[in-house]
Design a protein that fits this description.
The structure holds two protein chains of two kinds.
Chain A lengths: L7 E8 L7 E8 L3 E6 L7 E5 L3 E6 L7 E7 L4 E6 L2 H14 L19 H9 L3 H8 L6 E4 L15 E4 L4 H9 L8 E6 L4 E6 L11 H12 L7 E5 L3 H8 L14 E5 L5 H16 L5 H11 L1 H22 L3 E4 L6 H13 L6 H14 L4 H5 L12 H15 L8 H13 L10 H6 L2 H4 L3 H7 L35 H4 L12 H32 L24 H4 L17 H18 L5 H9 L19 H4 L1 H10 L1
Parallel strand pairs in A: 11-14, 12-13, 12-14
Antiparallel strand pairs in A: 1-2, 1-7, 2-3, 3-4, 5-6, 6-7, 8-9, 10-11
Chain B lengths: L10 E7 L7 E7 L3 E5 L9 E4 L3 E8 L3 E8 L4 E7 L1 H15 L28 H11 L3 E4 L15 E4 L4 H9 L8 E6 L4 E5 L13 H14 L5 E5 L3 H7 L15 E5 L5 H15 L6 H11 L1 H20 L4 E5 L6 H13 L6 H13 L5 H4 L16 H15 L8 H12 L11 H6 L2 H4 L3 H5 L2 H7 L24 H4 L7 H22 L12
Parallel strand pairs in B: 11-14, 12-13, 12-14
Antiparallel strand pairs in B: 1-2, 1-7, 2-3, 3-4, 5-6, 6-7, 8-9, 10-11
The chains are: A alpha+beta, B alpha+beta.
Chain lengths: 660, 543
Amino acid sequence: MEHIRTPKVENVRLVDRISSKKAALGTLYLTATHVIFVENAPDTRKETWILHSQISTIEKQATAATGCPLLIRCKNFQLLQLIIPQERDCHDVYISLIRLARPVKYEELYCFSFNPKLDKEEREQGWMLIDLSEEYKRMGLPNNFWQLSDVNRDYRVCDSYPTELYVPKSATAHIIVGSSKFRSRRRFPALSYYYRDNHASICRSSQPLSGFSARCLEDEQMLQAIRKANPGSDFIYVVDTRPKLNAMANRAAGKGYENEDNYSNIKFQFIGIENIHVMRNSLQKMLEVCELKSPSMSDFLWGLENSGWLRHIKAIMDAGIFIAKAVSEEGVSVLVHCSDGWDRTAQVCSVASLLLDPHYRTLKGFMVLIEKDWISFGHKFNHRYGNLDGDPKEISPVIDQFIECVWQLMEQFPCAFEFNERFLIHIQHHIYSCQFGNFLCNSQKERQELKIQERTYSLWAHLWKNRADYMNPLFRDDHSQTRGTLRLPTTPCNFLYKFWSGMYNRFEKGLQPRQSVTDYLMAVKEETQQLEEEREALEERLEKIQKVQLNHTKVKAKQSEPSKHSGFSTSDNSTANTPQDYSGNMKSFPSRSPSQGDEDSALILTQDNLKSSDPDLSANSDQESGVEDLSCRSPSGGECAPSEDSGKDRDSDEAVFLTA
Amino acid sequence: MEFSDLIRTGRAQAKLLRGPEAPPLRGTLCLTGHHLLLSPGPQATSELWLLLLRSVDSIEKRVASDSGTITLRCKDLRVLQLEIEGVEASLDIARSIEALSSLESVITSFPFFYRPKGLRLGDAWHFHPPERYYKRVARETNAWRLSEVNEDFSVCPSYPRAVIVPRSVDDGALARSARFRQGGRFPVLSYHHAPSGTVLVRSSQPLTGPQKRRCAEDEELLRAVLAGARPGARGFIVDTRSSQAAKQARMTGGGTEAKTAYPGWKRLHRPLERGQPLQESFVRLVEACGDPQQSTDSWLRRLEGCCWLAHVKEALSTACLAAQGMEREGACILVHGAEGTDSTLLVTSLAQLILDPLSRTMAGFQELVEREWIQAGHPFQLRCAHSAFSHARPKHEAPTFLLFLDCVWQLGRQFPLSLEFGEGLLLALFEHAYASPFGTFLCNSEKERCLCEVRTRTHSLWSGLNQPKEQRKLRNPLYAPNPLAIWPSVELQSLRLWQGLFLRWIRPPEPSEVAWEKVWQIVTDKEKTKLSQPTVSASEPQL
């Protein structure tokens, strides 16, 4: 790789952010795709892998006596603080990474070199796992009111929309094309979700080009057609997800919002969700709070409040709740838009769908939902997540916010989702990783031109294959509370929105709960299943025995076999067992050197290993944590994590790594 | 005094509102000496509704033309509303509730009248005497002995009759050391950490005063503590006040150990909030939780403003420091603040929970609460006289015990498999500490409990809780014994508001109940499958 100035630097220290006294000595490697840090400690050789596409910023700090500090911030919220002995090496690494982290062509992205060793057929099947036309069929379409339109064949009308769209039956091609000319980027109203119980629907579009007085007959007819497609209601809601002030400002630019006087039978509503720039700054502020060195509780809460992040999350949720209620309780169809209809509109439509339809709360359904409201409707993944070097002002955590909304719902309804938190975290990771082709480019059209499906692999197939890791053991699809529409409390409960430490601090293992309820319960479930299978086998055998030797059966109590699986409960204790620095800055225990303390913990670790069924466990997860938070392991406790890409593509990485 | 004197109107027709989620109840309201009852009409299907008057924290009345509304705010943070027919009747009932809920006499309180079916008086009171814990210590080391120097509570009125002290120190020296410590609380053993051979000791502040007095017996006692651990052992004195506050205490006769007088001991100051500021923090947190109309930002501002989570963090990290000193540094730890009955107990009990796997079991935790809080002389009656809603000026109230329960909940959240008990037990302890039909949390010390004959005339909470029918509510279905220390993270991102307590009556309870049902189902499914494994003959023929 021509961009790598120095492929290897030795004697680099990786600083532990929580207890800055601890630092691991090791070697830093730069490869075509990853930054790799390998610890020197001979017994662990812990590796930290970082994909170039995950790097958000690189900061070279003032050289100190110990060396030259380099701070790497990642899009998946990992923070790496390295100290490189030589200024010159540090500079070379810095310059190389700056270039490597900002590819200029799609072909440089990891997904074009990533090879999980699947054959062509498997790859094609992978891409077919999620099928949107199936999804519309599941909704009950086409029917008497809605039909598939080919008006956007070859992206003739709107280049950021998919080619297959559902529109009201009464909306002719003439109306659609006319309406599209009156909408920003020609994103005309199209169906996002159809609620078959009462025919109400959620449609989406961009803002109308109404300015101060412009009208468009076809656009008015289009909205009329949407209303007619729902015989149960004589009006529709038009929800503008922007703050009113922003929408008004747009009028001066010839854009704006629907005038209730011009459209018959609409109820117009603003729901103030801030724009991408506000959200970007808000996340920035929140992450700064997370990075504070030993803040007080008050600094933390004050900073969290000041960032406004949770307020923004709540605004998105509120919009989704409003729409879900309009559809399910009032039976009224809703048209949602913001400015271009690809950020806030996507957030709000998908939150509403998730609340309305339990299918989207299943593993596969959730993939479908992202495919439908985000990928197919032209959410600009490349611009928002900075996959290619571009305008930093386009970057914004839009889908991150949606993913957090889902987590907030999971916290409130622990039994309503088939998947667990890890599933959300891994999806977030891969939106930035560029390891799979799903989230490349800004639209379906671009992806088609790039022949993504022929040249890269699908994340959905990968996640589906490892679905055992993503299951929520508490999922209850049978319970009245989790069936149908999720009912949120009528009173506004702000305290229900919490800081998601599992996402934003996920690489700081010490901050997370040290034992996982999800893993434990999954293991128990698995064990139950195995016991049941064993029992069936035994019963079968017993039957045979009884047949052979009816008279001689002396039944003797047999102790159930010492469980092979019982090790799981203590296996996480290795992390549980190291105290952090509780003394603050005070040198409370000055007489002992830090190394003595480490000896202690090593001792404890080995003791623990004797008890644990899987001594490599902690090492395993740590090794992989560089690439992904891979605490997921097979709950049965034996084998190492089957799951992550990094595990499997190690071979291919290794190759790159050697040639580099 | 007769209760009937205080009951102006015995009954009235009323409607009871129990929060936004529960349906209202209608029926006849009755007032007795200890309870408020609502019996629904004869055709109604719902059961009798009962409220212990002692659990009413504050009462508010409003009258309309022909009815009155009484708002009862309870010590367990519930808010109830009664709509009563008749202005006169409602005012009378309000006044009666006010009078009956604030009676000060212990021996006329409900525990002295409560005679539940299936329980025998005197049961379970013998569960957790210090003698029992001493047996365990004696198995681990012989450096300590059980002293009955306080047999008649004359040496220290807030200690139990028997305490565990260094074997080499005689009772006379203990009595003299007691005179040098506030309230007579001389250093006694709290916990022996067998793996490291170190001990956790607690006391009150030494009465050094402005003249920097010393006490040879007290110094001898602490010397004996170190000698008992191992020759050359060192110790840390964790003072739960700031060094400034400790110095100031000298002016009023208190103070802290002088470095030169106690060789081998090093002092650390970890200021913990106590008393009135802690009570105010609790009041402000509950206020913030009860206001659903505020925006997300102002909620965070108020959460920050009340400082409750900061107190949780400080308490946990001080306990971790003490535990770390023992387990990692091999040092003995003495904990005290001023009186040694509040933050001291908070630190010693939490440190044990972190280090001692036994204290994380159901029985072990009950023993810990009994030994380190009730018998150690935490003044429950004074501290829990009022909860967060009272309009009365707080005098001695402080939610120290609640802070302890919150810290335990945080440990349970970070180590969801390591505690045998669940949130249910913590909630029950909170409720019963403030108002209970059982005698366990009555009075301020063992001495008072003896005078009131609490042990023979009331039922123990432990026997109430340990009935099989209660177990499912109290146990943690995920429990798997963990033999190691559990070191929690005290970083801000790791601490959470205890919603199950502070928002218990505000957020809808169903989703978490549904989740726990499922957890129990998964766990019991496994147990059932295990039990139903068929038995196979040993003399199995070859097939």
